Amino acid sequence: MFTASPEIQRGIYFEAGGQPGHRSAWIDEKINRASGNFFRNTLGILDRALCRPKTQGYMAFQDAASPIAHAAVAGSMGVLEAAREMTRLWRNAQ
Predict the structure, then answer these.
(1) How far apart are CA 45 and CA 14, in angstroms?
(2) What are the C-alpha distances in Å from 94 to residues 24, 55, 60, 65, 86?
(3) Contact (CB, 8 A) for 6 and 22
(4) What single string gives the DSSP state of each residue in 18-41?
(5) Would 53 be classed as within a structural domain?
(6) Domain coverage including residue 81
(7) Residue 77 lies inside a defined structural domain of this protein
(8) Which of 36, 43, 41 is closest to 22 using CA atoms?
(9) Helix or strand or coil: residue 9?
(10) How far is the C-alpha of 57 from the C-alpha of 45, rounded, in Å?
(11) Residue 17 domain flag
(12) For burial by CB atoms within 10 Å, which of 4, 35, 80, 81 has the most?
């Protein structure tokens, strides 16, 4: 609770080189000045990010699907093939 508190995240945690997780630190003017506005410029992406589902079987699906996603991004597997395989994995995880 101490480390995650807004005051510590905006203070000693950031000053010691940590990347704060508390939103108040991400919008703090002092921290943004010191970081070249890294946090302010990145916050919108985090606000739009998809959170990991909490459904049964998701973690096993993620473990199996990650190499497929990597192969598609790296170009060693076609995107449609990857999508089909990941869909099959998801259906089997349910």
Answers:
(1) 20
(2) 38, 9, 10, 14, 13
(3) yes
(4) ----SHHHHT-HHHHHHTTTHHHH
(5) no
(6) 58-93
(7) yes
(8) 43
(9) helix
(10) 27
(11) yes
(12) 35
Number of domains, the chain: 2
Return the residue matching tokens 């973690």: 59
- Same domain for 41 and 16: yes
Q: Which residues contact 11 (CB under 8 A, 6 or more apart)?
A: none
pLDDT tens-place values along the chain, 94 residues long: 999 999 999 999 999 999 999 999 999 999 999 999 999 999 999 899 888 788 888 999 999 999 999 999 999 999 999 999 999 999 988 7
Same domain? 43 vs 62: no
CB 93, CB 57: distance < 8 Å = yes
Q: Model-level pTM? A: 0.56
> Would you mind telling me the total number of residues written for the chain in this entry?
94
Inter-axis angle of helices 79-93 and 58-74, to 10 degrees? 170
Sign of the four-CA dihedral 63, 65, 66, 71: positive
d(CA 26, CA 42): 9
